[in-house]
Structure to design on (342 residues):
């Protein structure tokens, strides 16, 4: 009898584990000034929440409850953040950043604070989302301070300056610029490895990926990439790094230890997007993959095909597109939340 109870107990645990939710995905639709919340169990869009004009990137709080969207602006620079309650599917407030216009890259550094790039001010700023205040400013003095990656292990932030062609290394706790790593104009996508040892930087102009030692700030390798390599994302286990290529309609998977390209994932075969593109390769309207993020379990990667209004779901077990999810107009910035939204 005890044996059967033990078997039943393990069976219940297995069933519970299998039934655990994949959570939800925040998607910023920069063409519609909205943020979509996607249900990752049903692969469907739940709602769209208004943001500010020209919203581009988003970050989610450590507890998964709050999303913060950067309102970059269109022809006219914007200077605000939209704060969203994910569970309530509603905007809470906007934070005016004053002179810190063109906010773009964003990451949470603790439950109450985010770091945000400002292209116009050539700076990385720290914002308290409880008090609505800009509390710290570190000047990059570089043009096009665009994407930021934050390393929890050592408290450093890395800012890609796409027009100056450099990376600014910032000590967040000490509130100071540590180093400006000079590369080439076109430097945009970047990510720090989970162990904090390597910084991978994509250059969309010369189609390369530079690997930088995050301790010495020295270049260790230069890898070939496809045309307009624009975003970089490590898997949580650090074994693979993915690059989205905006001109060739695919996403590249690199073996980090071997520093070698192992697969290109073709996004031409997405299910029909908002423009009616079907499964046949339409070379006149190729997919434009930009935004990229991963599920914390490492089993899925999510790619925003900007011109299709679609998010591609990639299974990392076989590196195949296993689902697509409709979003809004020109989806770009992505971030995962563990919350299951009703």
């Amino acid at each position: 009898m005890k044996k059967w109870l033990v078997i039943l107990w393990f069976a219940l645990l297995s069933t519970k584990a299998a039934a655990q939710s994949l959570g939800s995905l925040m998607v910023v639709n920069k063409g519609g000034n909205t943020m979509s919340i996607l249900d990752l169990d049903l692969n469907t869009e739940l709602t769209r929440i208004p943001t500010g004009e020209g919203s581009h990137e988003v970050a989610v709080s450590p507890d998964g409850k709050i999303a913060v969207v950067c309102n970059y602006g269109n022809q006219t620079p914007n200077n605000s953040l939209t704060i969203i309650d994910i569970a309530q599917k509603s905007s809470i407030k906007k934070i005016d950043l004053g002179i810190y216009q063109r906010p773009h890259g964003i990451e949470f550094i603790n439950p109450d604070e985010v770091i945000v790039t400002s292209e116009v001010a050539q700076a990385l700023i720290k914002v308290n989302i409880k008090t609505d205040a800009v509390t710290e400013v570190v000047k990059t003095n570089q043009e096009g301070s665009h994407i930021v990656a934050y390393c929890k292990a050592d408290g450093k932030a890395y800012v890609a300056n796409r027009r100056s062609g450099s990376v600014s290394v910032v000590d967040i706790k000490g509130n100071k610029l540590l180093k400006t790593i000079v590369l080439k104009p076109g430097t945009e996508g970047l990510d720090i490895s989970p162990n904090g040892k390597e910084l991978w930087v994509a250059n969309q102009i010369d189609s390369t990926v530079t690997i930088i030692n995050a301790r010495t700030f020295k270049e260790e390798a230069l890898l070939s990439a496809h045309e307009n390599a624009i975003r970089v994302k490590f898997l949580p286990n650090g074994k693979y790094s993915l690059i989205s290529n905006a001109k060739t309609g695919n996403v590249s998977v690199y073996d980090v230890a071997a520093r070698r390209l192992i697969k290109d994932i073709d996004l031409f075969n997405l299910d029909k997007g908002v423009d009616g593109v079907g499964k046949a390769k339409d070379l006149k309207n190729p997919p434009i993959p930009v935004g990229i993020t991963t599920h914390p379990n490492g089993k899925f990667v999510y790619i925003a095909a900007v011109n299709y209004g679609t998010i591609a779901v990639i299974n990392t077990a076989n590196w195949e597109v296993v689902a697509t999810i409709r979003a809004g107009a020109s989806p770009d910035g992505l971030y995962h939340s563990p919350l299951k939204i009703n």
Remarks:
- Confidence is low (pLDDT under 50) at residues 4-18, 271-279.
- The longest strand covers residues 77-85.
- The chain is about 5% helix and 55% strand.
- The first helix runs from residue 2 to 18.
